[in-house]
Specification:
The complex is a heterodimer of chains A (about 260) and B (about 300). Chain A is an alpha/beta fold. In chain A, about 35% of the residues lie in helices and about 30% in strands. Chain A is built from 9 helices and 12 strands. In chain A, β9, α6 and β10 form a beta-alpha-beta unit. In chain A, α3 crosses α4. The radius of gyration of chain A is 18 Å and the shape is globular. With about 300 residues, chain B is mainly alpha-helical. Helix content of chain B is about 70%, strand content about 5%. The chains are: A alpha/beta (about 260), B mainly alpha (about 300). At the A-B interface, α2, β8, α3 and α5 of A face α9 and α10 of B.
Chain lengths: ~260, ~300
């Protein structure tokens, strides 16, 4: 794998029982690249994202992040399933932001952000707090450290969730429809934070329905249908001049 | 109730006549008459309240109360540990651990706790000597004293019930919480301890509070296997002096007092685990309310 490749998926399949959700995904993401995954619901884009940090185990094929096979150790042609601890270690460098935020409701904003650094990476609490306060400032939530998640709006909660993921200093960020559960007037504040991250050179894979965001921020756009990537390329090509019939249908419906 | 019959004049000149709650007056009168009748009967009963008062702080009674409380704590500690372990085992993907946990709940929930106490107490009949790997064998009679037998018996029985409470608490926590914790690289046990259990506590504490109160009262069963808890002590006394009702009332007063203290503890525990569960501030504690009244409130 060449040095500037961060993520590689090779013929990834995922079945839930007899239901084939992913049917042979091949994908490469370079370091610093922002890739948007588009597609109708049920096309498998969230499942692909969840396979990348092993929240779902692939049924077939392999995914590499930073030269490591996710969920397995490879010796020659032999794949050994990793233990829980080793999977947890692999996930530490992959941040994830969920559609429904999934903040820890029994912890304050600050506690949410420092939970990973202090408990998982075991860094000094004072340093973790300092970094957390800087991160919260970066996502526009300075001064809200002591609030509990339920005291915040959806947009604020999602920005805390982004700060919580960033606190682990990930090499890759996965966004699973980060604005789909938000009131329309709150979508912008979350997208602004994500644009800022993209400009900072963070590698991001974003499942989204925000075509405008994809057009503006994505380096490449992948369009998925029926568990396959049917079209992949620059946003200008895929979104403005789609080649595939399914992409055209989808875009005509959402735009 | 007095205001219910008064009339109020409003500013725009109308007179508002509130509805009369005749039913309430009748209901209150019936209950009051009954209470007076009860009070008169009790005062006429052949009860010597002086005896009640003197035995209330009788050393043997207080020792018995202490034993009941310590037994409650010991049995609930065993019950909670067994409950959490069993709940986690039952939710495990391993069919053997899940099956063993199911078997435990089946056996201990399916037999009377009184019977279980008798079995623990009489275990020495079938196992005269108990040996643990690495420890010298001990005579069962020395190890399973009445108190230990009662703590184990009550605790294991409790664990079977508590495991279901804990399991429902764990199931009440949204799956997204586990996923978010996994995504920041937490190992499984840490997710349980830091993320899932603290949130499950909100669901677990009210029924467990009930169970602690129930346990305090169930410790009286331990008198059957020779534990000198408060009820057994009272019986020892009234077998001698025949002040049966006086001593039973002494026990009732102490049980009520202990349960009241436990209820207060439950209030504060529930409050602690309600952190972050609402968008509003927590309801003030009675102490905080008092402070607010007297103007000595600190910011909390």
């Amino acid at each position: 794998m060449s040095a500037d490749l961060l993520v590689r998926a090779e013929s990834v399949h995922k079945n839930f029982g007899s239901n084939q959700v992913l049917r042979g995904i091949n994908l490469e993401v370079r370091r610093g690249e922002v890739l948007c995954l588009l597609g109708a619901s049920g096309s498998g884009k969230s499942t692909l994202l969840r396979c990348i940090n092993h929240l779902e185990a692939v049924s077939n094929g392999r995914i590499w992040v930073d030269d490591e096979v996710i969920g397995y150790r490879q010796d020659g042609n032999r794949l050994t399933e990793l233990s829980d601890t080793e999977v947890a270690r692999q996930r530490r460098s992959i941040g994830m932001v969920f559609q429904r935020f999934n903040l820890f409701p029994h912890m304050t904003v600050l506690e949410n952000v420092i939970e990973g650094p202090t408990r998982v990476q075991r860094i000094d609490a004072g340093q973790a707090r300092q970094e957390a306060i800087e991160l919260l400032d970066r996502v526009g939530l300075a001064g809200r450290e002591g609030s509990y998640p339920r005291q915040l709006s959806g947009g604020q909660q999602q920005r805390v969730a982004i700060a919580r993921a960033l606190a682990m200093k990930p090499v890759l960020m996965l966004f699973d429809e980060p604005t789909s559960a938000l009131d329309p007037e709150l979508v912008g504040e979350v997208l602004d934070v994500m644009k800022d991250l993209a400009r900072s050179g963070l590698t991001m894979i974003v499942v989204t329905h925000e075509i405008g965001f994809a057009k503006e921020v994505a380096d490449r756009v992948a369009f998925m249908a029926d568990g396959q990537i049917v079209e992949l390329g620059q946003p200008q090509e895929v979104l403005v001049n789609p080649q595939h019939e399914r992409t055209r249908q989808f875009l005509s419906r959402v735009m | 109730m007095t205001s219910a019959t008064s009339t109020t004049a409003t500013s725009d000149g109308f007179v508002v006549v509130p509805r009369r709650h005749l039913g309430r007056w009748i209901g209150a009168a019936v209950v009051l008459v009954f209470l007076v009748w009860l009070g008169v009967s009790v005062s006429r009963a052949a009860l010597d309240w002086g005896v009640v008062r003197s035995y209330l702080t009788f050393p043997v009674i207080l020792t018995g109360l202490g034993i009941a409380i310590v037994l409650t704590i010991a049995a609930m500690a065993i019950g909670l540990v067994m409950g959490v372990v069993t709940a986690v085992m039952r939710m495990s993907k391993n069919p053997v651990t899940a099956g063993v946990a199911w078997l435990y709940v089946w056996v201990f929930r399916g037999t009377p706790v009184y019977l279980q106490l008798l079995i623990w107490f009489n275990l020495a009949i079938i196992f005269p000597v108990i040996g643990f790997p690495g420890l010298a064998p001990t005579r069962t009679i020395d190890l399973l004293t009445p108190f230990v037998a009662a703590a184990i018996g009550l605790g294991l029985n409790q664990g079977a019930y508590t495991s279901e409470v804990v399991r429902s608490g764990i199931l009440s926590v949204d799956e997204g919480q586990t996923e978010a914790a996994q995504a920041i690289g937490m190992p499984r046990l840490m997710i349980l301890r830091r993320i899932v259990l603290p949130q499950a506590m909100r669901v677990i504490i009210p029924p467990v509070g009930n169970e602690v109160i129930g346990m305090l009262k169930t410790t009286s069963l331990a008198s059957a296997i020779g534990v000198s808890e408060i009820l057994a002590q009272a019986q020892h006394i009234y077998f001698v002096n025949s002040r049966i009702m006086e001593l039973l009332i002494v026990c009732a007063i102490w049980y009520l007092a202990a349960v009241s203290v436990l209820s207060i503890g439950q209030f504060y525990l529930e409050r602690h685990y309600a952190k972050g569960s609402t968008s509003k501030a927590l309801a003030p504690t009675p102490l905080q309310r008092l402070r607010a009244v007297f103007g000595t409130a600190r910011s909390y």
